[in-house]
UniProtKB/TrEMBL annotation:
Name recorded for this polypeptide: Terpene synthase
UniProt entry tagged with the keyword Magnesium: yes
Any Pfam family: Terpene_syn_C_2
Metal-binding recorded as keyword: yes
Keywords, comma-separated and alphabetical: Lyase, Magnesium, Metal-binding
Xref: InterPro entries: Isoprenoid_synthase_dom_sf (IPR008949), Terpene_cyclase-like_2 (IPR034686)
Listed transmembrane segments: none
Family per record: Belongs to the terpene synthase family.
EC number: 4.2.3.-
SUPFAM superfamilies: Terpenoid synthases
Species of the source: Microdochium trichocladiopsis
Single GO molecular function: metal ion binding
GO biological process: isoprenoid biosynthetic process
Cofactor(s), by name: Mg(2+)
Amino acid sequence: MAPDIDYLAKHGHADAIEPIDSRKNVVKRAAGQRILVPDILSLMPAWPSELQPDIDAVNEEIDEWLKTVKVAEHKKAKHRARGNYTLLTAVYYPHCTRDKMLPLTQFLYWIFFWDDEIDTGGELTEDKEGTLQCCKETNQCVDDCLGPNPNYEPPAGSRGTVEMFYPILRDLRAGMGPVTVERFRSELHDYINGVAKQQDVRQAEDLPNPWEHFQMRSDDVGVIPSITQNEYAMQFELPEWVRRHEAMESIIQECTRLTVLLNEILSLQKEFRVGQLENLVTLFMAHDNMSLHSAVNRVLDLIRKHYDICVEAEARLPWSDSDEKFNEDMREYVRGCHRLATGTAYWSYHCERYFKHIQVNEKREVLLDLALIEP
């Protein structure tokens, strides 16, 4: 994605602050501030949120499954308490059956466990060689399970997040057609390799250009495999020519961007408190010398803009005049794209991964607090 030329023309393209000072400067300017963020879901009004009804039953199965996963107990407890990834699955795939909901939930547990190993505060945060080895082992798992000659047996001594991934991919592959499997394999590789690139950016002295950061996050974020999983969830296979149609590519791209944008705002407090300043809000503050409120408003404006682009693209899809099954599969795929954005927002308001429930009011406005430590 190229930088947003409209915004650059309107708001300018100021030179970045000197490298070493840019991080200290933005922390000093933002620390201790609070900002009331409007209901993100209200910015995507035509896309409703629904829930799969078997959340409690699947949560019981997840509790039993977690006992078998070789991940540190304190990590399991943290994610179980703050993440509620069964809820996230339920809002991503509200019409799937209960039996499909379990591996879809397990996948989301895997992606958060795995990403947190490398993200700020994880064991591999500053270990470049360790990160590359982890990515290599995970890429091998993807090829083992989703390649032409599947092998679902993890190598002896595999790290816990790799070992747990083999049976998850086995179960997901069993419900996918060959075209979907290959697409899923390629998308997982893109995600895994993208996480390693993001680590390089976090370790650099200077903060990145916000538009370059937005491009990298949109290219490498892990939501695209979750879009493809709609074909597993709803038991259909989208023809590859439809997936590559310019309108469908635009919808996927815009929903990915929307998911990145809303997550940048809703995760701002959490990331700021752990010193992760590679967030569009803080990057706009540093690069364009904006206030916190102006930077948040810019991201909100981008959400509105990319939502409109996505809605406009739907009219250009290759609708059939006679094949209603084809049309319904395409509608479901598009709804799945929408739900990556709305579902992420809905889940963020109903768990405590990014902020406390008491920070959200009855209008679903959230009061973000950029205190350096949790009050």
